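Example 3.2
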Amino acid sequence: MIDEKIPVYLNEQKKEIGRLFLKIDQGHVLGKFSNLLSYIENFLGNEQNINNIDIYPQFARANRNSKKDHGQVNFECIITKHPATPFYYEAEAIFTHPLDKIPIGTRIKIITLEKTEDGHYQKSTDPDAIFEHVFIPNCDYAESDPASVLSSDNTAVDYRNFFKEGDLRALKWKNIDFQK
């Protein structure tokens, strides 16, 4: 239900909307900045496309970056802003249950590396080196933000049902009704 246009009632008017209207991106767990995706595709062979294992529906706030929200792009930009610096980068989609369709968030770890005298890499000993280890929840923070598309009435159970099945109707939305 994430990729197709869906009929809804928006402010009592019947419309067809897509995931972009709902602020849901096709988020990459391993960012396109990395130059590693072609290697992974080569490893997987001709029968597999990297996007089959790397893309998940991700709320825009979890994926993008802004002055108020530090989504996944914020952490990917740390690496792109330092192209000559070697980093260890790890990104993992976190699921509550192995059969869930949508991850509850993304765990990211970034460690600055330095080359040793024998040519190996290790964690940098520089006290100003970049070290980030974060969890970015895959949700839309609805409390009082007018930019949020979700109602503040959503509960952990609502999100759980969304992550389990990928069904947008499991969540409560502002001015959108899937039920009519």
